[in-house]
Design a protein that fits this description.
It comes from Amycolatopsis bartoniae. By secondary structure, the protein is mostly helical. It has five helices and three strands; from the N terminus they run βααββααα. The N terminus is likely disordered.
Length: 126
């Protein structure tokens, strides 16, 4: 359990600050993408960096990463969010950028294959 301070946010505050629905905040917590703690009154409370992490998760989803892949991407982040540093955010961003570029290259190669003069396959005659 955590002590409620001005540094913690409720589910609705994280949702508002990150631009998602409260249900998305609960989903991300359930799947280990963000970290919340419970108060003595059993309310979820989040560190003030969690809305930023939710925004990063949303970008990762747009890149096409699955929940498991996003969790792996974020595995190096400190569990104690008060220990988050700018370097940790920059490292996370760089890893996500690398993955986005890798996927873009793969999609570009696929598009080139689809739009080339080569046949993708031969349909056997009847």
């Amino acid at each position: 359990m955590t002590t409620v301070t001005e540094e913690t946010l409720s589910v609705s505050e994280v949702a508002r600050d990150s631009g998602v629905a409260p249900s998305a905040v609960r989903f991300y917590e359930k799947h280990g993408l963000i970290t919340g703690q419970r108060t003595a009154g059993n309310q979820r409370r989040f560190h003030r960096v969690e809305p930023c992490l939710v925004k990063i998760v949303r970008v990762a989803q747009r890149v096409g990463l699955t929940v498991a892949e996003i969790r792996d991407l974020m595995a190096d982040l400190p569990q104690d969010r008060s220990e988050m540093t700018l370097d940790a955010f920059y490292h996370l961003r760089a890893r996500l950028e690398d993955e986005a570029r890798r996927r873009l290259l793969a999609l570009t190669e696929t598009l080139d294959e689809l739009t080339s003069e080569r046949k993708l396959c031969e349909i056997p005659p009847k």
